[in-house]
Design goal:
mainly beta, Elongation Factor Tu (Ef-tu), domain 3, SH3 type barrels, six-stranded mixed β-sheet
Length: about 170
């Protein structure tokens, strides 16, 4: 089941004396997080902040409505912020990392389950799925067309065609 509210960053400090906060974005880029006018302080959507944001290097600077002093901003330090999935539409084949974590990784030909996606690593050229097997062993699979055959988020699996060396010692 897809989560409605997704972790998207953490308030790591203040900026200036007029109540701005610095947010470490946990998404593709600071610019992505800046597109949201509401950030939530819980995964239920009960508490939200109305924000105006701008990127600054690798962080987001946000002015929160009603937070006008450094002391008020300081009280938010350490809080995780969430976005509402319904506030964004993703392109075809693009997924939230949180939707991929926990998916079964299945061989498209043999039907063998290799484990579950436990992390998605950003390498620059392509993402890499970290797969954790039932015995705790970890494997890395590049997210490229030759390996990833299909993803079915709703049914909870990814079909792959493993390259030599991913799940064995062959080079």
């Amino acid at each position: 089941m897809k989560k409605q509210f997704l972790e998207s960053g953490k308030i790591v400090g203040t900026h200036g004396i007029k109540g701005e906060v610095r947010i470490d974005p946990w998404c593709d880029s600071p610019e992505f997080l800046c597109a949201f006018k509401k950030l939530y302080l819980d995964d239920k959507g009960d508490t939200f902040l109305e924000v105006g944001s701008r990127p600054h290097k690798n962080i987001v600077l946000s002015k929160i409505r009603g937070v006008d002093t450094i002391e008020q901003a300081e009280r938010l330090r350490g809080k995780v912020v969430y976005i509402d999935r319904s506030d964004i539409s993703l392109g075809e084949g693009v997924n939230f990392v949180q939707d991929l974590i926990g998916l079964d990784v299945i061989d498209s030909e043999s039907g063998i389950s290799y484990g579950k996606i436990s992390d998605v690593l950003r390498t620059g050229a392509n993402d890499v799925y970290e797969i954790t097997a039932a015995d705790g062993a970890k494997y890395l699979a590049p997210v490229i067309d030759e390996v990833i055959i299909s993803k079915n988020i709703d049914e909870g699996f990814v079909l792959i065609r493993p390259m030599k060396g991913i799940f064995d010692d062959e080079a």
